Amino acid sequence: MAQEEMRKGPWAEQEDLQLAFYVNLFGDRRWDFLAKVSGLRRTGKSCRLRWVNYLHPGLKRGKMTPQEERLILELHSKWGNRWSKIAIKLPGRTDNEIKNYWRTHMRKKAQDERKNKASTISPSSSFSNSSSFYSNSPDVDFTPIMENNERNFYDTGGVEKKINDGDKMKVYSMDEIWKDIELPDESETMNNIKPIMSSPLWNYCPNNTLWMSDEEETKMFPQFYSYLDNQDNTFFAG
DNA sequence: AATGTCATCAACCGCCTGTCG
DNA sequence: GCGACAGGCGGTTGATGACAT
């Protein structure tokens, strides 16, 4: 059958509303199904990404706090680029957000390192005084490593260490990690951090319009209701 | 004010993994 | 056990806004 052309690029407000409505209706699973019944000309993947990274009500938005920054760096030193795993430890933050943060931060760091090396007569002294997380670590080549043994600019390197389950884990000196980050303001403890539940979706729905009347729903989401008609309403049968 | 550069973030892509028939 | 499919993950790109010159 003829494949309907999928939309790409930035999401419109109307699309967000539509997606949120159907996720509330059916839950955040079966993304291909959701994409279909919602009438959004988006792939299931695209819908999932939009929901997870932007529309989810539990998302915290805004700048990373110093505490979050430290946690990210600490967890990255343990787990490497396991962004989703790291994200679990930072409620309200997405893997994408953390990944972006890391990339930005590490690029800056790599640039600083290059400058330092260029201006230092003895480049080997750069990390030699760092107290290593693993005190018995061999001398470390901090040039970034990619899977095919090429060097990745954004990865600042670290020891590649095999762990039990076969995962590779990079280990960084904590001094190395912290030194590039401003220490947090002492007064800014975790207790002061107010989670900001500010998914922009809720701005669009000031009066709980996600839970509108049947008539309103029918007007707003005709695709869904026509779809249901075609399916003999079997969605709710089970 | 105009232009260039950099930082940030949303979104896409391709690969991997888990599940189901 | 195998193939198909859906979902998840990490890497990467492109648009945009902020800042510097």
TrEMBL record:
Keywords: DNA-binding, Nucleus, Repeat, Transcription, Transcription regulation. It comes from the Eukaryota. Signal peptide: none annotated. InterPro entries: EOBI/EOBII-like_plant (IPR044676), Homeodomain-like_sf (IPR009057), Myb_dom (IPR017930), SANT/Myb (IPR001005). It is found in: Nucleus. Residues 3-55, 56-110 form the HTH myb-type domain. Residues 122-133 have a biased composition (Low complexity). Residues 3-55, 56-106 form the Myb-like domain. GO terms for molecular function: DNA-binding transcription factor activity; transcription cis-regulatory region binding. Transcription factor. This is Transcription factor MYB48. It comes from Capsicum baccatum (Peruvian pepper).
